[in-house]
Amino acid sequence: MYQVLYRKWRPQTFDDVSGQEHITTTLKNEIGTNRLNHAYLFTGSRGTGKTTCAKILAKAANCLDSHSGNPCGECEICRGIDDGSILDIVEMDAASNRKIDDIRQIIDEVQFKPAKCKYRVYIVDEVHMLTTEAFNALLKTLEEPPEHVIFILATTEVHKLPQTILSRCQRFDFHRIAPRAIADRLLYVAEQESVRLSDSAAMMLASIADGALRDALSLLDRCIAISSEIDDEVVRDAAGLARKTYLFELAASAINKNTAKALEIVNSLYAESKDMSRLCDELLAHFRALMLIKSVKKPRDILIMSDDEFEEAQTQADYLSLADIVYYMDVLSRAYQSMGHGTGDRTEFEMAMVKLSSAELDGTPEALLSRIAALEKAVRKGIAVSYQPPNLPESKTEPIIEEPPKTDDKPVFDSKATAPKTEEVPVNRAPAAESVPKSVPKSEHKPVANLDEIYRNAKPFSQWVEVVNNLKPISRAIAAAFSGSSAYESAGYLLIDTNNEMAFELLKNGSRREEIRKIILETTGRVYKLGPYKKIEKKQEETDPLEILKNSLQDSSVEITEE
């Protein structure tokens, strides 16, 4: 029967273990100096060598002719452990033997001396699956076992173990194996299996395995089933990955805001039976590479890609700001988390690509900040940006009023702000106030403010609660003063309705007012003039029947005559 590669090529000595030198060196020294502990705890992510090192330790502790802490593999004990004829080495899966009765059986067995070996070794895999009662039953034996017993506990979730267990074990943390170490091991295995494996394909396998050598060997098995000559294309087909060209094209579509192109690529990949969740994860990793290129001094040492791909990734990174890249990663991350929860994976990924290529459809704060950063970048490069405020006609309009609305009962503030105009202006500053020659009286050029009209047309401002929440990191005093207030917008004004006079007193301070306006700009992307809100009371209609009759007769030009 065919034996899979990760079992066939499981390391038999500590020297064969890849990427865990900080652990294997310590274990070899303990065996060489005969300073073995009675309880070990091996913890780390999957496929990093925990069970393998446990088996090697069990053999080395009982080997009749160990060499520098490694088992010889030739003596009677080593061969018996390998073929399973020696029963003094017990390997137990705690996931299926997790009850207190299973632990009681171990407690009864440890009282007997081993039949052939020097030590009776118990390897308990996935030990975090034991019940609380089972842990409590094991405590005393684990703390003071007989001299001929060694416990080796292995787990991927060490945080689930009780502190009473942790304190009784010598702990070893297995790290994720470096991609280069995984690739070297894969090249060695491929050579022994008479398979041609390119170095770039080995590095791609190592990258997909994410630090787990067992996963890399399993994927190599799938590649060998496809072809005996393994290159990057074979690895992508075996893993169900999109080719790098598609990833670069998808990223380019998002950068160039070409929604149609992005959806065409997604449809083509879906027709090729590409897994949408894996594609989303791969595109997220692609933007992570761009983020590292923008942030790290020597990204080439971290990123696993060919020289041509790295050069193309650098070109894409130059077109984006760090804020853009982080926003793209956030959208893809949210889409990846939503996959498998009702909406189809393809639909989730398509929505994510539409948001990336049409940022105006995404109303999250991250999307607004990304758009602001992109506009600021354009302004720094001297590019004129057309600014058209929402809810205003396309044609150029004059502001309704030039000064903030004044009331008799509340103070007036924020006289610096001006209503936005539909003209070509830099985006990183508010549109400049209308310049008026000094020789011309202002009254001839500035329209009279129709306050009643402004108040009457005011509509509730839905983002005011978010603005108040964003004020908390800046000033808790201002946020508290505006707590419970509401706001209305009308003709470029943001009118605040509150009974707390302290709010208006704080806003009379120039620096505080600028902080408020800055937060409003960051939250909404628009510049507002600030003012107090005043409710317009409707005039009571005349109800005198004679007056109503008189007015109707006058309007109809009817003459009243006496007979």
Structural class comes to alpha/beta
Could you say which overall geometry the principal axes of the C-alpha atoms support?
elongated
Helix content: 40-55%
Widest β-sheet, arrangement of strands: 2-3-4-1-5
**Low-confidence sequence ranges:** 387-448, 538-542, 556-563
Question: Strand content of the residues, in percent?
Answer: 5-15%
Written description of the protein model:
With 563 residues, the chain is α/β, with parallel strands linked by helices. 47% of the residues lie in helices and 9% in strands. The chain has 24 helices and eleven strands. It has helices at 5-8, 21-32, 50-62, 76-83, 100-109, 132-143, 163-166, 179-192, 199-209, 213-226, 232-239, 244-255, 259-271, 276-295, 307-319, 322-338, 345-357, 365-380, 451-456, 464-471, 476-481, 501-507, 510-524, 545-555; strands at residues 39-44, 89-93, 120-125, 149-155, 170-174, 196-197, 229-230, 459-460, 486-490, 493-497, 529-532. The chain has a five-stranded parallel beta sheet with strand order 2-3-4-1-5, with helices on one face. A four-stranded mixed beta sheet has the order 8-9-10-11, with no helix packed on it. Strands 6-7 form a two-stranded parallel ribbon. It is elongated and about 120 Å long. Mean pLDDT is 78; it is low at 387-448, 538-542 and 556-563.
